[in-house]
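Hey team,

Sharing the DNA-3-methyladenine glycosylase I run so nobody has to redo it. Sequence (197 residues) first:
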Amino acid sequence: MNEDLVIGDDGLARPQWAATSDMLRAYYDTEWGMPVRTESGVFERLSLECFQSGLSWAIILSKREAFREAFANFDPEKVALFTENDFESLMDNPAIVRNKLKIRATIANAEATLMMREEGGLADFIWSFKPEETPAPRTLAEIPTQSVESKELAKALKKRGFKFVGPTTMFALMEAIGMVDTHLVGSHRRNSSGIWA
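Structure output:
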């Protein structure tokens, strides 16, 4: 048996990180790696991955509802209009991660998202970097942290005014929205997105 997989009380195999709390298990079982193709959905995941940089995903996930409330449910049209007063309010909000650069990046990324509509929209643009094949990791150590595509995507987004979109963060986004399937071989979620057979 793969030591990186844990069999839950329900008999299902999950990676260790997804077996540490009900919150992470629910996220793993129902959402992580499932296709997200709407503008606001992709903008939300991109924003949360930006805030996660250097922190644990559990921290971000536990604050997700507060982030949604603080950032107008990640409606890029609303976030793009945030003023300096809005910025100060966000910096005073203990329910979210109060990082000046990440908050400013999220507002800038909302503006850049609106500009992306001229190129067909953020979601389609990001999905255009979907690789030809997905990794098939058997252990956590085999899961890549970036790829050729995530490097190209990071470069392309930076060119269009996006911030905090490095290749590692973009690979995490690609995992989260189903563009690659890094569920471990043997996990009950492997191949569950309908994108990779």
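Residues 13 and 187 are 5 Å apart (CA to CA).

Ping me if you want the raw files.
A.
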